[in-house]
Design a protein that fits this description.
With 550 residues, this protein is α/β, with parallel strands linked by helices. Among the domains are: 1-123 and 452-519, 3-Layer(aba) Sandwich (Rossmann fold), CATH 3.40.50; 180-337, no CATH class. The chain has 17 helices and 15 strands. The chain has helices spanning 35-45, 76-81, 113-120, 138-148, 152-198, 206-217, 219-234, 240-252, 259-288, 293-313, 318-384, 425-428, 431-448, 465-478, 491-494, 521-533, 539-549; strands at 2-10, 13-19, 24-28, 62-69, 89-96, 102-106, 109-111, 124-127, 391-403, 406-415, 423-424, 453-457, 484-487, 499-508, 511-518. Helix 14 links the parallel strand 12 and strand 13. The longest helix has 67 residues, at 318-384. It is elongated. May be involved in recombinational repair of damaged DNA.
Length: 550
C-alpha cells in the first residue's frame, strides 16, 4: 500500500507531504483544482516520462517520493532480478533537475525507468478512462480469467516449457540446415581423412626420417670420408694413433718425476683409448654402410607426402596434422550420425510438445471451469450498477498452435440491451459501460488475488443516484482487502471513504498553488454538503451530508 507521498516543486505544487492509510481513501475537489496534478506526480513515481515543463520553478529540482508498504506482496524475487535491495518499506523517488534530466531511485539505488515500471506495476494501479481500453485487449482478458482460474503456476510451467520447445525447434532447424552443408563437405573431408590415415602419422618420427634420407642420399661421400678419417688415424708409422702411442712412451719415462708429468701421461693414455674407440666406431659404420636405392626412394616418397600435407594444411608439425585428422574424423562422424541426431532431436520435440499439450489442457480446463462463475458474478454486479440487461459471453476456443499462455483463443462478447446480439466488447460497449465493467472486474479480481493499490480517477463519471451508491459500496468492499483511492465528484461515493482528502487552489502573491488537505469529521460534512448543494450550504444539505456519512 501507498503510505506516503511527497511532492516538491511540481506544476502548481510548492511542497506537499501527505500520509495515507489502508481502506478507501476519497479525493475530491473542484474541477481544475489540481487533482490531475496529483495523479501526474504519482505517475512520475510509477515511471512516466518527465519533462522540464512540469517543474514549477526551473532553477530548483523537482522531487516526487512515494513510500510503499510491500509486506503483503511476494516481490523478493523481483527485487533480486532487478539487482535491488529488498525492503518492506520501499521508497521510490524521481527527480527532475534544472537541466531537464530525470533521475529515478528505488531504496536510494539509481535505476532505469524500465526497472521502475517493472516494480511499480505491482504497487499501484491508476485506473483512468484510458485504462478501460485494456478490457478489449486479449492479454488483459486472459489475465482476468487466469487469475480466477488460479492458473499462475501452470502458466509459469507452460512458459518455461514453451521456451525449451522453441529452442529445440530452432536447434532442429539448424541441424537440418547443417546437414545439407555437411553432406556437401562429406566426400572432401573423407578424402582428406583417408589421405592422412594412409601415411600412419602416429608412427612417423620426422627427425629420424630426415636423418635416414640424408645418410642414404650421401652414402658414397660418407664412405669416402670415413675411409679418409680411418687412414689419418691408423696409417702405419704416420697415423695419429701411432703418434699418440709414441708420445705416451716418452711421457712414461718422466712420469715418476712429479705429479704434473704423471697427469700428462694419464691424459695421453685417455686420448689414446678414445681414439681407439673412434676407430672401432668408424669400422662399424663402414661395415654397416650400404647403398639401398629402394629404401632411399621409399623414404624420399614419404617425406614428400609429409611436406605436401604440411603445405596443403598450412602447418609445420606432425602433431598439427594429427589434430587435423582427428577434427576431420569428427566431422565425418557427425555427418554419418546426423540422421540419428536429427531423429533424437525430433523425439525430444515430440516429448516437449506432449508435455506442453498436457499443461495447456490443464490451463484450458481451469479456464472453462471458472468462466461461468465469472460471467455470473459480472452480470450480477453490472445489474446493480444500472445495467440490468447487460449480458456477457466469454468464448474460449482451442488453437492449433501454441501461444504464449497456452493453446486457447479468448474473446469477451457483450450485449448491453435485450433484443440485441452479442458483439466484441470494444465494438458494443460505450466508454461509461466500459468503466462500470472494469470496476466490476476489478472487484471480482480482488476476491481471488492480491491486487496492488488502486486509484479510480472519476470512474463515476456519468452516473448518479442509486448507481453511484452501488459503485461506492463496491469500492468500499474492495477496500476491505486492499488499498483503494477514488477521485470523485459524487457525494454518495465520497461518504463511503475511511479517509477524505480535498484538493484545492490558493492564490499567494498573485501565484496559484495547489494544495491537498486531509479533512476531519466536521470538514467532511461540509465538503459532502457542498457536493450535494453547491457553495451555499443549506440546512437540508448538511442534514443529508450527515445522513450519508453515518
Amino acid at each position: 500500500m501507498l503510505t506516503s507521498l511527497y511532492i516538491k516543486n511540481y506544476a502548481l505544487i510548492d511542497e506537499l507531504n501527505v500520509s495515507f492509510n489502508n481502506g478507501l481513501t476519497i479525493i475530491t475537489g473542484e474541477t481544475g483544482a489540481g487533482k490531475s496534478i496529483l495523479l501526474g506526480g504519482l505517475s512520475l513515481v510509477l515511471g512516466k516520462r518527465a519533462d522540464l515543463s512540469q517543474v514549477k520553478t526551473a532553477e530548483e529540482k523537482c522531487i516526487i517520493e512515494a513510500v510503499f508498504d510491500i509486506a503483503n506482496y511476494d516481490l523478493k524475487s523481483l527485487f533480486k532480478s532487478l539487482d535491488l535491495d529488498y525492503d518492506v518499506q520501499t521508497i521510490i523517488r524521481r527527480e527532475i533537475l534544472a537541466s531537464g534530466k530525470s533521475r529515478a531511485f528505488i531504496n536510494d539505488t539509481p535505476v532505469t525507468l524500465e526497472s521502475l515500471v517493472a516494480l511499480s506495476s505491482y504497487l499501484i494501479d491508476i485506473h483512468s478512462q484510458h485504462q478501460t481500453q485494456q478490457l478489449t485487449q486479449d492479454d488483459y482478458q486472459f489475465k482476468v480469467i487466469d487469475a480466477l482460474a488460479d492458473n499462475q503456476l501452470n502458466l509459469e510451467e507452460f512458459s518455461k516449457g514453451l521456451s525449451v520447445f522453441k529452442k529445440l525447434q530452432k536447434a532442429l532447424a539448424v541441424l537440418k540446415l547443417s546437414k545439407a552443408e555437411l553432406i556437401k563437405e562429406y566426400d572432401y573431408n573423407l578424402f582428406l581423412s583417408n589421405e592422412l590415415n594412409e601415411i600412419n602419422l602416429e608412427k612417423i618420427n620426422l627427425e629420424d626420417l630426415e636423418n635416414q634420407y640424408e645418410e642414404l642420399n650421401n652414402v658414397e661421400i660418407i664412405g669416402e670420408k670415413l675411409s679418409s678419417a680411418k687412414a689419418i688415424l691408423d696409417a702405419e708409422g704416420l697415423g695419429v694413433i701411432d703418434q699418440i702411442n709414441s708420445a705416451k712412451q716418452e711421457l712414461s719415462k718422466i712420469a715418476t718425476f712429479g705429479k704434473p708429468y704423471e697427469s700428462l701421461k694419464e691424459r695421453i693414455i685417455s686420448v689414446g683409448i678414445e681414439l681407439d674407440d673412434v676407430l672401432i666406431e668408424i669400422d662399424n659404420l663402414e661395415d654397416n654402410l650400404s647403398t639401398d636405392p629402394q629404401e632411399l626412394e621409399r623414404i624420399n616418397s614419404k617425406l614428400q607426402i609429409v611436406n605436401n600435407l604440411f603445405q596443403k594444411h598450412s602447418v609445420s608439425e606432425i602433431e598439427d596434422l594429427i589434430a587435423i585428422k582427428v577434427d576431420l574424423q569428427s566431422k565425418i562422424n557427425d555427418t554419418e550420425s546426423l540422421d540419428q541426431t536429427i531423429l533424437d532431436k525430433e523425439q525430444e520435440i515430440l516429448k516437449a510438445n506432449e508435455k506442453l499439450n498436457q499443461i495447456a489442457l490443464k490451463i484450458s480446463k481451469n479456464r472453462k471451469k471458472v468462466i461461468p462463475i465469472f460471467v455470473s458474478k459480472l452480470e450480477a454486479i453490472l445489474s446493480d450498477l444500472g445495467m440490468p440487461n447487460a449480458r456477457f459471453k466469454v468464448d474460449l476456443e482451442p488453437t492449433e498452435q501454441f501461444v504464449k499462455n497456452g493453446k486457447d483463443s479468448l474473446q469477451f462478447l457483450f450485449m448491453a440491451n435485450k433484443g440485441s446480439s452479442f458483439n466484441e466488447l470494444k465494438k458494443s460497449a460505450s466508454g461509461g459501460e466500459l468503466s462500470r465493467i472494469m470496476l466490476a472486474i476489478k472487484s471480482i479480481l480482488a476476491e481471488y488475488i492480491q491486487l496492488p493499490s488502486i486509484m479510480f480517477d472519476e470512474i463515476d463519471t456519468g452516473v448518479s443516484g442509486e448507481i453511484s451508491n452501488k459503485m461506492g459500496e463496491i469500492m468500499k468492499q474492495m477496500s476491505s482487502s486492499m488499498q483503494v483511492f477514488t477521485i470523485t465528484h459524487l457525494p454518495q461515493i465520497a461518504a463511503k471513504g475511511n479517509s477524505h482528502f480535498k484538493v484545492f487552489k490558493t492564490d499567494i502573491d498573485d501565484i496559484t498553488h495547489t494544495q491537498l488537505k486531509k479533512l476531519n469529521e466536521d470538514e467532511r460534512i461540509v465538503e459532502v454538503a457542498q457536493m450535494l448543494g453547491g457553495l451555499t450550504i443549506t440546512d437540508s444539505a448538511m442534514a443529508h451530508a450527515k445522513q450519508l456519512l453515518n
